[in-house]
Amino acid sequence: MADPSPSTPLLDLNIVPYQFLSPKLEPKPEPIEIPNPNPSSVLSPNSILSPELHTPLQQISPSSSAAGAGAGEDDLFAEYLRLSQLFLSSYNDKLRTAGATGTSSSASTAVVVSRKSRSRSAEMVRVSALGTQDRAHFRDLLRRTRITFESLRLLVLLEEGRAGGLLAAKRGRSDLKSAALMKNRDLWLNRDKRIVGPIPGVAVGDVYFFRMEICVLGLHGQVQAGIDYVPASRSSTREPVATSIIVSGGYEDDDDKGYELVYTGHGGRAPNMHKHSVDQKLEGGNLGLERSMAYGIEIRVIRGMKSDKSPTGKVYVYDGLYKIVECWLDVGKSGFAVYKYRLLRIEGQDNMGSLVMKLAEELKANPLRVRPRGYLSLDISMGKENSAVSLFNDIDGDRYRDPLLFEYLARPVYPPGLQGKIFGDCGGGCQCVKNCTADCFCAKMSGGEFAYDANGILLRGKPVIYECGPYCRCSASCPNRVSQKGLTNRLEIFRSLETGWGVRSLDLIRAGSFICEFSGLVLTKQQAEALSPNGDGFVFPNRFPERWVEWGDVSDVFPDYVPARVPSLPGLDFAIDVSRARNVACYMSHSSSPNVFLQFVLYDHYNVAFPHLMIFALENIPPLRELSIDYGMAVAEEWVGKLTM
Ligand SMILES: [Zn+2]
Ligand SMILES: [Zn+2]
Ligand SMILES: [Zn+2]
């Protein structure tokens, strides 16, 4: 991965000339957020006035040395930091002893170093006008941080699943533990400055499955509170200033129309209650919002939405910047005084993520009613894929409809000569009668562990993965059968002015999940050279950069971590001819900052010289966002030109 810390200054940081703050007040927690890990300690309504007690984990670990607005957060993490330390040492031990299987460099000393996590800065800055290069740099940094967060979370889950494990006592909050591990290493982004306005690298419409991830990235720095603000006690002008809010729905006085939003201030509610029981006051975040209105400071708005794609049943969508245009004291539905704020979305931003998600749902249900024109085919695969692949061109569909001309090939076709080598060196699959377990033959072939978690999420990238296949005795529901099952998301080939043909999904795609296979006619090196000496219309698997090493990379937390080198793969010299028959994958655009990556997989044959080219998500990909893959810089232009026109 490229070094994310260039030496030249990239930012034009305009210091916003007011810094503010206030005593810590009770947060406006979300209605269905952060289940109390200690349910017996239900707070009494009196504790509204002693907000420090509101973070559930403080009850577990009441000692806190940190001061200021970060104090509650630090307490929230105290217990998880302790567990994380245990996890760190145990995992480092494992990394060191894993040298035998080639997953670790055994020489270095993996000391559990915990950098002192700094408290959050109150210095406010606005990041203005980033160039293309800077945007890519910050996007890469953000992606790396997200991958670390998710990879750690998967590791924690794996550890929890194993024989009770050392983390068994506090199951279920892998997100908190992952965030704590990263906090311990000072890996949370945007802590040294309070960014007003857009966060570099964060795109409007980005989707997060865990609220902790939003904190880790610095998009909204409060673990529980709905309003994030610089407190008055830490600002030069002694006034708080709000920078972001999380709108979750479910509050009786909120009114969310999308572009216009009436947001209710915090306070006046008993913990975990939606209704107000006392009057709200103009202080803390409430005053912060009022001051932000007075100073014209834009507010980042993140919306919580229900989603069955998320392990928590909920996702968070970054909807962009809003301006507060009005603030008033009102009588809430419960009869108590509430502060209300009218926010309007600032124009000229990318489409609102939460609306795009709703649109994508409508498109799945009734495509022609939502978009009466532009469809060239509702399923270009003609039923060959598990889920329909639509072809859409509302730009120049009268001239460009060429994807219709190719035979749609859902699975690659191998040359007949390969049949004899079908088992390669490997014999014929596993003999597991019941569920495959870690001592299954296929797990051993994959480097001693299964590649996927129970939900089919790839745990980390590898040179090649052995899925169970037709020669295994296990059932079709074996969790080691994932990419062979084909599409699970509704994909669309679409025409755009920027990239020609492109691919997007109508479903939210979770990071680490399988998307589609690169399909065509598989040719040996000799066949390829004979058919097309200059390689026109061919895909060469060996030209894809090894982006799979990024998925699962936790080296920022575990310095001893090295990418998997087993099972090993020989140099690949075959080609895939996509000049006559192809599938949806052929229309993906190139990016050197991609959101999907290539992972080689074997399942229906074991000839390592001819693995399947499977494509997985490198980050959570919102519906209708274009998928992009790294074809390798040298061939990028050639491919965008030849494959997609
Ligand atoms: Zn097995
Ligand atoms: Zn199996
Ligand atoms: Zn098997």
UniProtKB/TrEMBL annotation:
Name of this chain's protein: Histone-lysine N-methyltransferase family member SUVH9-like
InterPro entries: H3-K9-MeTrfase_plant, H3K9_HMTase_SUVAR3-9, Pre-SET_dom, PUA-like_sf, SET_dom, SET_dom_sf, SRA-YDG_sf, SRA_YDG
Domain YDG: 197-345
Protein's UniProt keywords contain Lipid metabolism: no
One Pfam family of this chain: SET
MF-aspect GO terms: double-stranded DNA binding; histone methyltransferase activity; zinc ion binding
Single GO cellular component term: chromosome
Bilayer-spanning residue ranges: none
The UniProt record lists the keyword Nucleus: yes
Domain spans labelled Pre-SET: 428-486
PANTHER family referenced in this protein's UniProt entry, alphabetically: HISTONE-LYSINE N-METHYLTRANSFERASE FAMILY MEMBER SUVH9, HISTONE-LYSINE N-METHYLTRANSFERASE SETMAR
Annotated region described as Disordered, given as residue ranges: 27-48
Keywords: Chromatin regulator, Chromosome, Nucleus
Listed Low complexity bias regions: 39-48
Compartmental location: Chromosome; Nucleus
Location of the SET domain: 489-632
Listed SMART domains: PreSET, SET, SRA
